[in-house]
Design a protein that fits this description.
The chain is of the alpha/beta class. The chain contains 11 helices and 9 strands. It is 30% helix and 11% strand. A 5-stranded parallel beta sheet has the order 1-5-4-2-3. It has a 4-stranded parallel beta sheet with strand order 7-6-8-9, with helices on both faces. Strand 6, helix 8 (175-179) and strand 7 form a beta-alpha-beta unit. Helix 5 packs across helix 10. The longest helix is centred in the last third of the chain and has 11 residues, at 240-250.
């Protein structure tokens, strides 16, 4: 496949080959953040569980957002706990369209791990291919990997604001959250002025696999993205924005991730908020909702 995705067949071949390989189970979702019970009930043989909330995110003040990028030393300690060693191929997966697995892909790729793949089609692709699951906890020998972050482009809150006015900034949340019709988590509803809504959940097909690069390219082009111009991406807390980052990369773009995303922006009352279906460039300040 690509140098980002791996199929269930390819993963099975890698496991059988005995090549240096670490498989990471990154099950997480907003309504059920602890995926450990599902992992223990059945996972790809040899897979190590990764806790997104505690290992793939920092925990600061609300003004930092809900899932800030983890500090390097914490990420490196976690990665060694997963058994990662220099030279390993790493395969990440979840059970929900790769939405959380993409966060692990982004962090490890950014940190200099040279070969990180996402299992295309998630856990369903593995089971649909007739392959079995393993039960219980996998506790690997401690790894020795050294991480060096900064390989992938990211945006600060000020840079995201500027890109919304002078470039292409994609908001990949559900349409109702973008419009400001509903906001179940963060303190204010709406979107960053100038941002264009392209929900990342439709970057995959019914089988959970990413769409073909040509389809993805056409979709992002309709939103105004150009391969020769910067394109930023954000979501609610920076997790599913990583999924859109992957889709944009597969489509041939050079995306930039705004890790703080809406959860950070909405916790800064001085930042303007746009509502409705229009991108809302230059929208007036909407005061923080205190209810």
């Amino acid at each position: 496949m690509s140098d980002i995705l791996i199929s269930a067949i390819e993963l099975a071949e890698l496991l059988a080959s005995g090549a240096p390989l670490r498989v990471l189970d990154v099950r997480w979702r907003l309504d059920r953040p602890d995926g450990r019970p599902e992992y223990l009930a059945g996972h790809i043989p040899g897979a190590v569980y990764v806790d997104l909330d505690s290992e793939l995110a920092e925990h600061g003040t609300p003004r930092d957002g809900r899932h800030p990028l983890p500090a390097l030393d914490r990420l490196e300690t976690a990665a060694r706990g997963w058994g990662l060693r220099t030279g390993d191929t790493v395969v990440v997966y979840d059970d929900l369209k790769s939405l959380s697995a993409a966060r692990a892909w982004w962090l490890l790729t950014d940190a200099g791990v040279s070969d990180v793949r996402i299992l295309d089609g998630s856990l369903r692709a593995w089971t649909a291919s007739g392959r079995t699951l393993e039960h219980g906890l996998v506790d690997p020998p401690r790894g020795d990997i050294t991480l060096t972050p900064g390989r992938l482009p990211r945006l600060t809150i000020d840079q995201a604001a500027a890109l919304g006015q002078d470039g292409v900034l994609l908001d990949v949340r559900a349409e109702e959250r973008y419009r400001g019709d509903a906001e179940p988590v963060d303190p204010r509803a709406g979107h960053i002025p100038g941002a264009i809504n392209v929900p990342t959940t439709v970057n995959v097909g019914p089988d959970g696999r990413f769409l073909d690069p040509e389809e993805l390219r056409a979709r992002f082009a309709r939103a105004g993205a150009r391969p020769d111009a910067p394109v930023g991406v954000y979501c609610g807390s920076g997790v599913t924005a990583s999924h859109a980052f992957v889709a944009l990369t597969l489509a041939g773009y050079a995306p930039q991730l705004y890790p703080g995303s809406w959860s950070q922006w909405s916790n800064h009352p001085d930042r303007p908020v746009a509502v409705g279906s229009h991108p809302g460039a230059g929208a007036p300040l909407v005061k923080e909702n205190q209810s």
